[in-house]
Amino acid sequence: MNLTIDSWKPFLVSDIFDIFNGSGITKEEIECNPGDFSAIQSGEENNGCIGKIDKNYCVSMNYTYTEEPCLTVARTGSAGYVAFQPFGCVVGDSAKILLLKNNEAKSTLVYLFLKTILMANQYKYTYGRKVTESKYMAEIIMLPSTPDGKPDWDYMESFIKSLNHKPLATANQGGRASPTLGVESWQEFVIGDYFEVKKGKRLTSEDQTEGSTLYIGAIDSNNGVANKIGQEPIHDGNTISLSYNGSVGEAFYQPEPFWATDDVNVLYFRPENGIQFNKYIALFVCAVLRQEKYRYSYGRKWILDNMKSTVIKLPSKAEKPDWLFMESYMKALPYGDRI
User: Fold this and answer.
1) If you average pLDDT over each of 1-10, 166-175, 217-226, 275-284, which comes out highest?
2) Residue 168 pLDDT > 60
3) Closest CA to 159 of 339, 320, 2, 321
4) Could you read off the pLDDT of 306-337 as tens digits, one per residue?
5) Quick one: which of 77, 40, 3 has its CA closest to 247?
6) What is the CATH number of domain 183-338?
7) Whole-model pTM?
8) Ranges of CATH 3.90.220.20 domains, the chain
9) Would you state the pLDDT for residue 319?
């Protein structure tokens, strides 16, 4: 089933949802009042659920809750992150509840469709911006519509139903990859010795035009793609984007030419490494680079010079990175043949 986005119409979020602000809810409260009601805050893990609490306690505290399925949106932290709560929930002060205004439209499939649409706006709440009720409800989202200009709930439900698919097949059998990683024998290498690190370039949202060039931002989802723009790419494909601000340390393989924001550096594999760089090697290296993220929490930036001089551990052979091993390892993983 095709999306036919060209025919979609703009709607205010406030036309589609009612929003309810959260309050309270600490882990100590959950420990003292255990139950089976999901308590939601701002994290992305586990749909933002920080534990299960007694619903009667939430009622007695006058906390914000709903017993029907809903969406929740993070106010701070992972601001703008949207999760579907199939059994209702109570929200703390760093999250909000979104309920569809149209009672006939309230279905799991419609909520899942709208969750994806709203998640496309998460990038607007990076760099410490908070989700406020007034700003969020004034956002414009594009939705399929009926001939009389109303949201086409039936289309949304039908589209999600059409996404049913056969299980992904793989020729790689077994639950573990071969050869084994052998991390204990890995050696230390400097990033700048094997990759040329180039900066991205600032491009404000006002200057961005519509097009097909991938715009890579300092975000931790969607392979770093924050938008598609009309400007020409400034970086080659078959490279790695590495955020030094925002979601610092988030690394993604970029197969196509792209434009990287100035909060992102780009790693170009040096030709003197003597081997053709490819997606398998890149994905292995990305996984290693993400292990450095913890060093840059609390607002620290992974600036260009520091990135070049950063030491990482890699499989080695003859005192050099063993690129062929990395490629073979990724190919041998379950579903590695489907990368």
Assistant:
1) 275-284
2) yes
3) 2
4) 899 999 999 999 999 999 999 999 998 888 88
5) 77
6) 3.90.220.20
7) 0.59
8) 10-143, 183-338
9) 95
Q: In whole angstroms, give the CA distance from residue 158 to residue 141.
A: 19
pLDDT in tens, 189-219: 999 999 999 999 999 989 999 999 999 998 8
Q: Assign 3-class secondary structure to 284-339.
A: HHHHHHHHHHHHHCCCCCCCHHHHHHCEEEECEECCEECHHHHHHHHHHCCCHHHC
C-alpha closest to that of 118 among 31, 193, 11:
11
| Identity of the residue numbered 224 | G
Letter for the amino acid at 74?
A
Q: How many helices (H) and strands (E) does the chain have?
A: 10, 21
Cα distance between residue 151 and residue 10, in whole Å: 9
Q: 10-143: which CATH topology?
A: Adenine-n6-DNA-methyltransferase TaqI; Chain A, domain 2 (3.90.220)
Q: What is the rounded distance in angstroms from the CA atom of residue 12 to the CA atom of residue 17?
A: 9
The yes-or-no verdict on residue 177 having pLDDT over 50 is: no
DSSP string, 186-228: -EEEEHHHHEEEEE-----TTT--EEEEEEE-S-SSGGGEEEE
| DSSP code for 93 | T
